[in-house]
Amino acid sequence: MHSEQEIIAGCQQQKPAFQEKLYQLYSRKMMAVCMRYTRSRFEAEDIFHEAFVRVFANIRTYNGGSFEGWLRRIFVNTAINHYHKNRKYQDHLDYSLVEESSPAEDDIVSQISSQELLALINQLPEGYRLVFNLYVVEGFTHREIADMLQIAEGTSKSQLAKAKNYLKDLLHKYSISEKC
């Protein structure tokens, strides 16, 4: 068994056996990342393959730190780029028309299982889902999200609040939690 550093070094030397090991090591986690940003497995697989191509093309630029974090950033950026390229073909929210709203008082995310949450997140409108994933799941700041999605920072905050409210309404609708 090779260490992560040995696998990375092998990939930097473009050795196919090490590329396969890297793929095996991270494919499940990175496919899960792709699935959070799409509505279909087909679309997620497109992003997944494109991101791995980018990883192998750019692995020489990796210079230490959390490799999984570096890898995840490539997958998230690929998903965001995919969103921007395909936005004209999708039903989407016009960010310029979004009103500001204050965040919800209670954190309903902590009250449900991860499987329930993922199922509900997939029901969110595209703009809400992107901001929710980037902020809550990936841990980006509203400033970073605003830069990635080319929206105002306040819009990111508003989208997050509305996503949480939307999720709360879905919870009521499906009676997943009595506490909401």
From TrEMBL:
Keywords: Sigma factor, Transcription, Transcription regulation. Gene3D superfamilies: 1.10.1740.10, Winged helix-like DNA-binding domain superfamily/Winged helix DNA-binding domain (1.10.10.10). Coiled coil: none annotated. GO terms for biological process: DNA-templated transcription initiation. It holds the Pfam family Sigma70_r2. Residues 115-165 form the RNA polymerase sigma factor 70 region 4 type domain. InterPro entries: RNA_pol_sigma-70-like (IPR039425), RNA_pol_sigma-70_dom (IPR014284), RNA_pol_sigma70_r2 (IPR007627), RNA_pol_sigma70_r4_t2 (IPR013249), RNA_pol_sigma_r2 (IPR013325), RNA_pol_sigma_r3/r4-like (IPR013324), WH-like_DNA-bd_sf (IPR036388). Residues 22-88 form the RNA polymerase sigma-70 region domain. SUPFAM superfamilies: Sigma2 domain of RNA polymerase sigma factors, Sigma3 and sigma4 domains of RNA polymerase sigma factors. GO terms for molecular function: DNA binding; sigma factor activity. Belongs to the sigma-70 factor family. ECF subfamily. This is Sigma-70 family RNA polymerase sigma factor. It comes from Xanthocytophaga agilis.
